[in-house]
UniProtKB/TrEMBL annotation:
The name this protein goes by in its record: LETM1 protein
Topological category with respect to the lipid bilayer: Single-pass membrane protein
Subcellular location: Mitochondrion inner membrane
Domain of life: Eukaryota
An example Gene Ontology biological process: intracellular monoatomic cation homeostasis
Domain Letm1 RBD: residue ranges: 43-128
Membrane-spanning intervals of the chain: 58-81
One Gene Ontology cellular component: mitochondrial inner membrane
């Protein structure tokens, strides 16, 4: 059924709390990675990707904080998210949005594989015709 307005507000506050907590944790880990970089150590590919994602999240946090700090501006947040879907830091994404992105990526990969399979089959036909 439908949830009450109070319950939805509590759920949103929990979502923001968890998002900020995850972002804080990512920031601490990224700071350690930067410290390691400054002392001459090399990061793995996975660490480098995490560092870049965290830096991007911190830059995305600035416009997001405007919506959180300015009173009643959070009501405009869905409109801006529709216009700028990558505005939220990655730690604030919901599970459904994450699954939707994964489905889109998977569909794109399937289409690419289908295209490549058709291309290879067509090239095989041409080679067969040329040699036959």
């Amino acid at each position: 059924g439908k949830t009450s307005l109070r319950q939805r507000a509590v759920d949103e506050l929990k979502h923001y709390y968890n998002g900020f907590h995850l972002l804080w944790t990512d920031t601490k880990v990224a700071a350690r990675m930067v410290w390691r970089l400054l002392h001459g150590q090399v990061l793995t590919r996975r660490e480098r990707r995490r560092l870049l994602r965290t830096c991007a999240d911190l830059f995305r946090l600035v416009p997001f904080l405007v919506f959180v700090i300015v009173p009643f501006m959070e009501f405009l947040l869905p409109v801006f998210l529709k216009l700028f879907p990558q505005m939220l830091p990655s730690t604030f994404e919901t599970e459904s949005k994450r699954e939707e992105k994964l489905k889109k990526k998977l569909n794109a990969k399937l289409e690419l594989a289908k295209f490549l399979r058709e291309t290879i089959a067509e090239m095989a036909k041409r080679n067969k015709a040329d040699t036959g």
